[in-house]
Known about the structure:
The chain is an alpha+beta fold. It folds into 3 domains: 17-160, no CATH class; 166-237, Muramoyl-pentapeptide Carboxypeptidase, domain 1; 269-317, no CATH class. It contains 11 helices and 6 strands. The protein has helices at residues 17-30, 73-85, 87-90, 137-140, 143-154, 186-195, 205-217, 228-237, 269-278, 288-301, 311-317; strands at 33-36, 57-61, 92-97, 105-108, 113-116, 130-135. The chain has a 6-stranded antiparallel sheet. The radius of gyration is 23 Å and the shape is globular.
Amino acid sequence: MSRDYTGWDYNATGKRAGAEALSKCLEAYFGVWNNGTWGVRNMRGKGKPSVHGTGRAGDNSWRGAPYRGTGNYDSAKAACEFLVEHADELGLEFLCDYFPKPWGRGWRCDRNAWQDYTKKTVSGTPGGDWIHWEISNETADDPDRIVKVFEDALGPAPEEVKVPAKKTPKAPAGKKPWLQVGSKGAEVKKVQEIVGATADGDYGPKTEQAVKNWQAEHDLHVDGIWGPGSDGHVNDCDHGAPEPAAAPAPAPAANPFPGESLQIGSTGKYVIMVQKKVGAKPDGRFGPVTARSVRKYQRNAGLTVDGVVGPKTWGHMF
């Protein structure tokens, strides 16, 4: 369904939460890093104001080391396919892919289709290693909606892209206990021990998620707040802390590096080995979800975080 294209309407005074969430999600799920969002300036080579100034636009690059991208154009193509597939949910209005010859390609909401440019329409084409996107005013200020689209389609988002929970100013009258993001102290520590979170007495986003998981497991209202319902369920049913996790299985025998790096677009038995190692679905197809799991593994292991399984990452895994 076609929608009106906004273009530049006014300059924002700073970054807008929904647009920042979109850029973070593109980096986390597809390995295309934030190459710039809000910035008041004119369009390159033109005297007209750039949509970047509105806070509704961003550039995400697949440029590889020493930058954070995968170095693989397939990452950008996968990101573009996802954005167009979910264009209405994300409020996508314009998308430009600078790489293809002869002069790149562009998608707009008012035609709801890609157009291969036959002349130099935008700077940086062909061969530009980034994509440019623009979203609506509605979604530019709605980070929860942006993150939900990605999570519903591709699975839970990493902590760094999640939107901080909105804290209720105070507990409703007569509701005790009432612990939520921002709460601290011994009561929080007790809850963390029950739900299996790090017992540091600080109710942050990770504790909130652990509470949500616990509430779902016990068929309670899932809101991430430890209120009378959750507390009473523990007292009534004696649900204590979860059993300690089983000891990790012994490391498999060493496996030689398959000869070429595994990344988005790779398939086969070696991809399945990697997926099992990083906890992704072992379907033998290296897609954005597998790449995100690889980046998490690399981050935890102190390796270069690029979502690509090269010799060093493979060696650490196997």
